[in-house]
């Protein structure tokens, strides 16, 4: 095995010389670079794989599943050891629980999972058992989700609505209309997707039903709600709200294509949320016209004293398959002002429609030259940004650039993983929905970062337990994690949650 430093310096030489990377199978040799605004972004390859078995149960007694819907590093936990390993705590967030046979009364929650990362950069293929040691994961604890008065949240489809109301102590403005599970006691219905872990222990959580953004306390209690503009709310023909995800609204977010992406620029306290694909009026009712999605920005610098104002809104053109269908976006991550990573993909892989995924990437997009449409006529659903998928001529969309493929055959083979048949535990899962960035802290490569991603296994286990009741989903799909090493030359301080006072 070559030393990491040697391989990385070879990559640097290769890039300086402008040579095209030779296909070979070590992490560094797989480096692929893209140029954006004069800077070079490099994918240095897969460096770790981790797994939590499909039947693992958390402290509540339920199956630990769906955890790749959102991940974030717990603030201040990232540590580099003298021996070159890294450790920390991930906050992992499942969505609305096991719902293959309809939604259930699953209380929203967040899990703390400790990890030790031992990056592997060699070219020899590790056995599947040894591959799992490169990202060793240890479940620690679970925080359940509640409303202010200790009422549990629910994963049930929100057929009911709680009217807007005010008067909560410590809440600076009235709560907007909220999606409710129509149970005997009405519970706030949450289909959680994106997560941001704040330095004070609170969380921003994005949801697909509203689609809303919630501020949640360290103890799991709801603190505040952000309601997006009317163009994004699910409205009926008569312009009434209906949050159900069983049918598409007439305008607003597509059912199950809500705020999948959520990320924070911590230095300016700007929170960004992105819809998985276009709203219905923007072409979202068909995969062939749904690529023009919206990214929203909120100023969350004073969430305790005022409702966060909308401060920006841009159109992001998602990638297309060779059949012209949208590769919807499951997560975003802030990199530097105007620049983001985007996890866009098809729905194939283990437990998907097909074993073979054709597109699963961490791409880059840049909004610095895109039109800011917030507060314009486009926030009214009567004025689509892309009628039938044709972008309005007055709008310039973000610049979307292909970057890192998660399904590179040679990279996966180094960890005994694969894409395409056979359908077995070494096949990568279909649904990857999370991104988290942490610094490598390598003085030779100060702009190198680890990019973590985890998959949502939809709680699929033959020995499952949901809200205390056993279930058999007919298959066992483990919770899989991947870690890549990347060079992001423009990274700014707000993009990475730091540990021990390092300088980024
Ligand atoms: C909790 O508050 C919600 C309104 O926010 C209300 O619908 C519900 O009935 C309350 N539950 C209890 C147990 O007080
Ligand atoms: C929303 O629509 C669903 C199904 O179309 C219906 O059952 C439900 O009653 C509606 N909810 C409201 C609040 O109108
Ligand atoms: C996936 O591969 C398995 C073989 O391992 C095959 O039996 C199955 O039909 C394939 N699934 C699809 C959807 O093609």
From TrEMBL:
Keywords tagged on the record: Signal
One Pfam family linked to the record: Phytase-like
Source species, domain of life: Eukaryota
Residues in Phytase-like domain copies: 88-383
First and last residue of the signal peptide: 1-19
Identification of the protein by name: Phytase-like domain-containing protein
């Amino acid at each position: 095995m070559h030393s990491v430093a040697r391989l990385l310096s070879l990559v640097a030489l290769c890039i300086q010389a402008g040579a095209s990377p030779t296909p070979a199978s070590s992490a560094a040799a797989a480096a692929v670079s893209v140029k954006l605004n004069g800077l070079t972004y490099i994918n240095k390859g897969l460096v770790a794989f981790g797994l939590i078995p499909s039947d693992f149960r958390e402290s509540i007694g339920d199956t630990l599943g769906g955890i790749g819907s959102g991940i974030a590093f717990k603030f201040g936990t990232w540590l580099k050891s003298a021996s070159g390993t890294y450790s920390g705590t991930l906050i992992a967030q499942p969505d609305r629980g096991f719902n293959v046979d309809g939604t259930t009364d699953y209380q929203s929650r967040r899990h703390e999972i400790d990890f030790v990362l031992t990056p592997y950069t060699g070219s020899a293929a590790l056995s599947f058992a040894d591959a799992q040691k490169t990202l060793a994961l240890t479940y620690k604890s679970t925080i359940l989700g509640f409303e202010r008065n200790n009422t549990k949240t629910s994963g049930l489809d929100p057929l009911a609505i709680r009217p807007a109301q005010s008067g909560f102590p410590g809440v600076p403005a009235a709560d907007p209309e909220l999606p409710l599970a129509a149970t005997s006691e009405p519970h706030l219905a949450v289909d959680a997707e994106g997560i941001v872990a704040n330095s004070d222990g609170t969380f921003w959580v994005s949801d697909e039903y509203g689609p809303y953004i919630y501020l949640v306390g360290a103890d799991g209690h709801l603190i505040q709600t952000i309601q997006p503009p009317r163009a994004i709310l699910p409205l009926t023909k008569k312009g009434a709200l209906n949050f159900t995800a069983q049918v598409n609204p007439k305008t607003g977010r597509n059912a199950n294509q809500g705020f999948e992406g959520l990320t924070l620029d911590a230095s300016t306290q700007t929170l960004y949320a992105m819809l998985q694909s276009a709203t219905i009026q923007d072409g979202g009712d068909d995969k062939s016209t749904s690529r023009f999605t919206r990214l929203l920005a909120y100023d969350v610098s004073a969430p305790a004293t005022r409702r966060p104002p909308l401060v920006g809104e841009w159109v992001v053109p998602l990638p297309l398959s060779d059949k012209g269908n949208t590769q919807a976006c499951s997560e975003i991550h802030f990199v530097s002002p105007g620049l983001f990573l985007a996890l866009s993909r098809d729905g194939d892989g283990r437990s998907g429609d097909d074993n073979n995924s054709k597109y699963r990437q961490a791409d880059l997009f840049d909004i610095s030259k895109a039109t800011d449409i917030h507060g314009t006529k486009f926030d009214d659903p009567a004025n689509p940004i892309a009628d039938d998928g044709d972008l309005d001529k007055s709008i310039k969309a973000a610049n979307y650039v292909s970057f890192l493929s998660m399904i590179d055959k040679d990279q996966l083979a180094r960890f005994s993983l694969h894409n395409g048949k056979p359908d077995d535990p070494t096949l990568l899962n279909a649904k990857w929905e999370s991104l988290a960035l942490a610094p490598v802290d390598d003085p030779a490569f100060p702009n190198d970062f680890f990019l973590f991603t985890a998959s949502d296994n939809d709680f699929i286990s033959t020995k499952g337990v949901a809200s205390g009741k056993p279930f058999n989903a007919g298959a066992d799909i483990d919770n899989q994690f991947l870690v890549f090493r990347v060079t992001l030359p423009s990274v700014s301080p707000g993009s990475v949650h730091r540990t021990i006072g390092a300088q980024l």
